Structure formats: C-alpha cells, structure tokens
# Entry
Amino acid sequence: MEETTIEKTAKNIYYPPGGILVWFLIVLELFTFLGAALIFVYYRKNMLVEFTESKAILNPIIGSINTIILITSGYFMALSVNKLREDNTKKSAFFMLIGLLLGIAFLGVKGMEFYHKIELGIGFNYNTFFTFYWLMTGFHFVHVLFGVGLLFYMYLAVKKGKYSSKELFDVESSATYWHMCDLIWILIFPVLYLI
Amino acid sequence: MKKEIRLNTIVWILLIVLICISTVFSENGFESAFLVITGLSVVKFISVMYQFVEVKHAHIVWKLLSILFVLVYFIGILILY
# Structure
C-alpha cells in the first residue's frame, strides 16, 4: 500500500510537510522577517518617542481584524487539504475558494490602509518607524499577493479534478506557502501595531 | 480525518481568542503588556505551525527547529525591548 504524505513526512527529515523546497523558502523568509522584527525593536528602544508617536497613527483594531481575516483564510486552506485527502474535491475547492476570497479581503484592507497612509503623506522616508512599516508590511503584502495567485491556480486545478488524495503534493506545498504568510504576519503584526 | 478537522476548528477559535486578547492588552496599555502580547504570539505561531502547517506530523528536526525559531523571537524581543 502506498504511503500517505503524512506518513512520509513523519519518517523522513527531507520530506517536511509541503516538501523540502517550500521549506527552504519558509526558513529563509522567516529568518529575514525575524531579523527585521528584532532590529525594529532595537531601534524602538533608542527612538522611543518617535516610535510611540508613529505607532499611534496605526489602527490596531483594523490590524487585528485583518489578522483574523488572514488566520481564517489559513484555516479554510487547512480544511481544503483535509477534504482533498478524503477525495472530496468539491468541498476542497469550496474551502479553497473561501480561503482565496479571504486572502483578497486581507489585501483589500491592507491596500486601504496603505492608501490612507499615502494620503496623509506618510511615505517610506517619513521617519524610521515608517521605513520599517513599509518594508515589513510591503514585503508581506507582496507575499500574500503571490499566494492569492497561487491559490487561484490551485482552486481551478482542484475544481477540474486534477488533484486527489493520491496526488496532492502541489496543493500541500501551496497550503504550506499560504500558512507561511500567516506565520510572518503573526511575527510582525504585534511588533508594529501592538507593543 | 474528522478528528483533524475538529482540531483545526479548535485551533482556529483559539487563535481568534488570542488575537482579541492581544488587542485588548495593547489598547489598555498595561506596563507588562508587551510580555503578554509577545508570549501570545509565540502560542499563535506554534499553533499555526503544528496544526495548520502540520509540523506535528513532521520529523523531530522540523518540530525542534520551529520551537527554536520562535524562542529566538521571544527571547530577542525580551532582551531588546
């Protein structure tokens, strides 16, 4: 009997969930954002007044709502993979579509936030806080944008029945990439908006 | 698989509750709020990593790497804050 992907991943160090290639990307990205977050906290300590005043411009409630949207999107993506393992492609595609739409909603809210900042004249060179803000949230935005494209492609493929419980590696890799966007946001959101 | 879906749902609800608690702590401005907020971020990170990314099924090295990574984040913020 053929091993399931979960059985493979438990035994083999070279087979993390979603595959080793996407994990190279995850490790690289997570360490990059970790470095950025820690440097941000270091600068905050040395420029406390500027950082406190600048943080007050951000809206943590909107940020939290957007966090819930992104986490919920990740939840539906996880459900989609679970349903595909049951060979329920219809429900898998449906859950993926919800995840995709929530991803677009996240981009919409973030886009409005960016637009509002630009309208106020708060650009990349406004001050040190906002240089970090634009770098971290901007790069994350690009990652989510790419993820939305990936999910859209996967949604169409799952809907057409290209993937099944025996052939779902691409879907698992895409889901892992999508969760990476959640993980990055979990690291940078509290640093920028909450503390 | 039903058990897995149920677990996903429990973790999702937990994550939403933790996000709301973090926001409340941030808004109320307690002195040690950063500690609670950062600690909750660690819990959120591990929850997503283990349940949604399914690292709980992965080889021990990936499990340890995930925990080590988030500990560096937590300790780093505690030292630099």
User: Anything to note?
Assistant: The radius of gyration of chain B is 14 Å.
